[in-house]
Amino acid sequence: MKRRTVIMITGLLALAITSLNFFSGPRTNKDGEQSEGGNDSFLDRDIRIKRRPRLESETMEPMHGKLAQEIQEGEVGRVQAELDRQQQRQKQIDTQNRRLKLGEQASPMTQEASPKVDQPLKEQQRQQQQRSTASVTANTNFVENKYHVVTSVDGQIYTEWQVRIHYYWYKQMRLQYPDSAMGGFTRLLHSGKPDFLMDEIPTKVVDLLPPGMDKGFVVLNRPYAFAQWVERYMASIPERYVLMSEPDHLFIRPPPLWATLEKPAAFVFTYIEPAEHATIVNRFNDRKVPVESMAQIGSSPVIINRDQLAAVVDAWYDISLRLKNDPEADKAFGWVLDMYGWSIASSQHPDGPLQYDLHLLEFMIQPPWDETLAQGPSKENTTILHYTYGSDFNLTTGKFTPGTVGQWHWDKRDFSTRYPDGNIDCPAIIQPQTTHLQMWYINQAIAALGSAWGRPAVSR
C-alpha cells in the first residue's frame, strides 16, 4: 500500500479513538506541567532535559558505500550497475516478504482496513530504495562542494518570527562568505497551506499529519515534512548535500562541509543515549545493529548527502511514529522522541549503519550554558548559536540563575503568540559573551527587517 494511503487510513483510525477535547483542553507534559491546546509542543524540547557533561571525543569507523563512490566518479555505466544491484536486492526482499506472508493469519481485507503504524520491513526498505534511486537518476550534475539548508516550521507565530531571523542571518552568511559551502535555502512549511512569508523566504509547502496521528506531539510533523520534501522537491535542488536546520539557529559563520559522501556530520547531544535504553531501542532495531553503535545525535544540525537522506528519511518517519505509539518509549523519550527516531533510523540504512563525523561546540553553542564563542581545536568561532535555553541573570553578580527567573530575563517561549520587540537591552554586567551575542544577533535582524517585522493585518 502506498505510504499516503497508509497515513490517511491510520489518521482516521486515530481520530476515531481521540477525544475532541484533546486538542483544546489542557495536557500534561513529561514534567507534569499542563499546557493549553497544542502550542506547548512547539516550545523547545531541550529546556526540559537535564544537561549532562559533554563528550570529550568520539570516533567512528567510516561507511564504505559503493553508490557514493560511483556517483563521484561520474560514470554512467557504474550508476546503471548500481541500479541493477538495487533491483536484485529488491527481488531478494520480495522473496523474503513472500516467506513472511506464509505465516500471517490476517486476511488481506483485514490488513487493508487496519494498517499498522509498524509497517513491514520490506515496505520500508522498498521506499528507502525508491528514494535513493530517484535522487541518483533525477540529476547527476550536482554541486559537489555545497549543501542546501532546509529548515522546517509549522507556520505558527512562534516559529514564524524565529525563521525570519534565521533566514536573515543565512543571507548575511551568503554575503559575507561567498566562497563558503553554504548553498540554497528552503523553508519547509508543514502547515499544508501557503502564508504571507512565501515571497520573503524560499518555501516549499507540505502537508500536516492527519488529525490524531501525532497524539499531541506535533514535532512528529518534522519527519513527515522531510519525507514529503525528499519525495516531491529534493530532486530540484542542485546541491549534493543537505543541512537540516531549525528556526532558532543563528548562523555565526557558515558551517564547513564536514560531511563526505560516506559520512554525514552531526552535533552531539549527550542526552540522547540509545545504549542506556537498549531494551526499548531494540524493539525498533529491525536490522539488529549493536545499540552501542547508534550515535548520540538528533536530526539537527546534520549535514548529510542527499542519497543517504533519501535512504533513511522514511525510516525516521516510521520509527518516530512507532515510538510515539509505544507507551514505554513515549514515556522514556518524551520531548526528544523524534531525535531518538533519527538516531535509530540512521542505523537502519540499507547499506549499513551511517557512521557520523561527530562535532561538539565548533558546530553549535547553546547559551547561557556555553559561555564562549571560540570553540574547537582551531579556536575558531562556532558556526551556529542555538537559543534554546532561557536566559536568567542576577543583576548584582551578573551570574546565570538556572531554574530561577532572574532580574534580567529573556526566553523565546515568552513569544509563543506574539513577535518580540527589538532593541532588547542586555546589561554589561551579564557575564557570558554568548548571551550578549545572542541578543545582538536578534536585535540586528529585527532592526534590518524594520517595518516588515510582525504580521500584516490580514494574517492576524
UniProtKB/TrEMBL annotation:
The keyword Chaperone does not apply. Its main location: membrane. Residues 147-450 form the Hydroxyproline O-arabinosyltransferase-like domain. Residues 1-19 form the signal peptide. Pfam families: HPAT. Residues 54-64 have a biased composition (Basic and acidic residues). Residues 27-64, 80-137 are annotated as: Disordered. Keywords: Glycosyltransferase, Membrane, Signal, Transferase, Transmembrane, Transmembrane helix. InterPro entries: HPAT-like, HPAT/SRGT1-like. GO terms for molecular function: glycosyltransferase activity. PANTHER family: HYDROXYPROLINE O-ARABINOSYLTRANSFERASE RDN1, PEPTIDYL SERINE ALPHA-GALACTOSYLTRANSFERASE. This is Hydroxyproline O-arabinosyltransferase-like domain-containing protein. It comes from Apatococcus lobatus.
